[in-house]
Amino acid sequence: TFLKQGTTKKFKPVKGAAAKTTLKQTSASENNNKEESSPKKRKQVVKNLPPTTSSKQPRNSLSSPTSSTVTNNKKQPKFNRRAGNKNDPLNLHRYYRTELLSADEEYSLGMQIQFMMQCELVHEGLCENLLRLPTMEEWATACGFEDIPTERFIPTEADEKIRPAGAETMFEEQNPHMFVGNGLATHAGPGRGRGRAKKPAPTSLGDFYDDSTERFPSLLVNDDDDKSVEEDKNENDMRRTEDPTKNKTPPPKKEPINRGTPLDFLEMMYTAKEAKQRMVQCNMRLVVSIARKYSNVGVNLQDLVQEGSLGLTRAAEKFEPSKGFKFSTYASWWIQQAVFRSIAYHSRTIRLPVHVHNLLNRVRRVRMTLEQDLGRSPTNEEIAEQLDMSTSKFNKMLRLTRRSISLEMPKYQSNPKDLGHESEDLLGDTIDAAAVVQDESSPEKRVDRRLFHEDLREMLEILEEDERKVICARYGLSDGLTRTVTAVAAQMKESKAWVRSQECRALRKLRRPWYEKRLKEHQNSLTN
User: Fold this and answer.
1) Quick one: pLDDT at residue 27?
2) Cα separation, 127 vs 200, whole angstroms
3) For residue range 96-118, what is the model confidence (pLDDT) as tens digits?
4) pLDDT per position as a tens digit, 410-450
5) Which of 158, 290, 341, 410 is most deeply packed, by most CB within 10 A?
C-alpha cells in the first residue's frame, strides 16, 4: 500500500515483460550510481585490430591465436584452422594476431639488435684479417668479453648458428665468370659492379652502452616488485622536495654491456637473435598492409608479402632506436623499396631495369592526368612534352617496353552468348611468319593465299576510307589481330557508336552474292 493525502491505494504486482523492464531500469540506475561514485577510467581502444590476449599473460611474451579471446562476435569472423576463412583465403589475418610492441619494448629490442649487428661486423673484420673463420673465444674477446671463465669453454655445434649468414661460404672459391649483383665476382663494390668501394670492417668492438633501462624504467619493473616501485616513487618525491643548493650525489657511472665471459657473449647473441625475430613477427602486419596496396600489378600477393618481409628484416638490422623515431616509420620505406623492386623484377616476362619501370609508372600517371584535363586520350607528343622528352625518344621507349603475349592464347575472347560455339583458334595460328621464318607450305597454297589477299583488297576498295580502317582494325585484316569496338574507338579517337555505325555500313556494302561466291572458293582451296 502507498499512503498519500490520507488515502490508501493498492498496486497490483507487475508481471511479464513489464516486470523485466522495471528490473532492468532499477539495475541500470544502480550501475549508474556506482559509476558516478567511482572515478571514471578512460579505456584505450585501437580500432580494426584482432582480439587482445588475456591480462594474465606476461607483457613480453608473444600472443598466440589460441590464447586470444574473441570480442564482438558479430563483427569479427570466426577463423577455423582446418576450413580457413572465405574472406581471407591466404590466411594473412594470422599476422594481425601478434601483439604490438610498446615504445619501451621496441627500444630495448632495437638496442639488442644493434649490438648483434656490430658484433657481426667484427666477425667479418676478423675473417678478412685472419683469412679464416675465428673461433668463438677470439670473436668474444674482440667484442669485449675478455673475462676468463671458471670452467673451460667448449663451443658446441649449436653455437655455430650465431655466426653471420654466409660465413661458412665466405672462403669458398668463386667462379670469376659468375655475376654477383650487377658485376663480375672479381669486381669491387657491394653488388654494384665497379661502384663505390666498401669500407673495411672493424676488428674490435668498443664500449657498447644500452640506455633502454634509463629511458624506460618500466623495463625493470616486475609483478612482484610493487614495494620497490613505491620506494622509487618516495625517493623521487624526496628529491623534488630537497633544496637544490645542497650537494647532490653524482649519477652512477654507466657500464658497457659487452663485458664478461664468452658464455655471456653467447647468451647475449642468442637473446639478440630472438629479439630480431620478435621485432619482425610483431611488425608483419605492416608488411601485409603495404603489400595489399599493390596486389593487382602482376605479382602474387603472397610473393609481395615475402619480399616485404625481407625488407622488414633489413629495416630491423639498420634501425637505430637512439635517433628517436618509431620503427614502423623507418621500416615502411624499406618494405616499400622491397615491394617495388619485386614488382619491377617479376611483373613482366622480360625484366626491365628499375629506372625504366619507374619511368613507365610516371608515364602512366601523366597520361591519367592529361585524360582528366583534356577529356580524351592524349597523343604521344603531348605526353612527351609533359615529360620533357623528345617524341622520338618517347616512341622508342614505348616500342622497347611492349608487353609480351602468349601465342597459345585464344584468338577470340570467350563470349557468354557463344556458349557451345567457342572457337579453338589460337593466336599463333593467325600470325604470318613468312617474313621471319621460311614458309614450309606448298607453292600452291602460297599462290592461293596471295590471290585471296588480292581479292580482299579489291573488295575493300568499294568502301570509304573510314569504313575500310574500321573493318581492317576490327577483323585484323592488316596485322592479324582482332580488336573490340572499344579498342578500335580508342585507336581512332572516336566514339563507340561511330565505330558500330561504320562497321554496319561497311558490312552492308560487302554483302554481295558474287563476293560470297569468291570467298567460298578461296575457303575451299585453302582448307583442302
Assistant:
1) 52
2) 11
3) 888 889 999 999 999 999 999 99
4) 766 655 555 555 566 777 777 665 544 444 456 777 787 78
5) 290
Percent of the chain with pLDDT over 90: 30
Looking at the predicted structure, is the pLDDT value of residue 384 above 80? Answer: yes
Question: CA–CA separation, 397 vs 214, rounded Å?
Answer: 57
388: left (phi over 0), alpha (psi -120 to 50) or beta: left
Q: Is 510 helix (H, G, I), strand (E, B) or coil?
A: helix
- In angstroms, the CA 283 to CA 82 distance is 26
Residue count (the chain): 528
Q: Which amino acid is at 396?
A: K
| Cα 327 to Cα 107: distance, rounded to the nearest angstrom | 9
pLDDT in tens, 474-488: 888 877 778 888 888
Sheet strands (E) in 164-231: 179-180, 183-184
252 alpha-carbon distance from chain centroid: 46
> CA-CA distance, 407 to 349, in Å (whole number)?
14
Which of 28 and 310 is assigned the larger pLDDT?
310
| Nearest CA-CA partner of 352 in 301, 406, 402, 295 | 402
Greatest Cα pair distance in the chain: 127
Backbone dihedral angles phi then psi of residue 115, each to the nearest 5 degrees: -65, -45
Which helix (H) or strand (E) segment holds residue 286: the answer is helix 284-291
As a whole number, mean pLDDT of residues 22-33 equals: 51
Local structure of 2: helix, strand or coil: strand
Please tell me whether residue 504 adopts helix, strand or coil conformation.
helix
Residue 89 DSSP class: T
Report residue 416 CA to chain centroid gap: 36
Strands 179-180 and 183-184: antiparallel
Residue 231 scores a pLDDT above 70: no
Q: Identity (one letter) of the amino acid at 142?
A: A
Rounded to whole angstroms, how far apart are CA atoms 431 and 446? Answer: 15
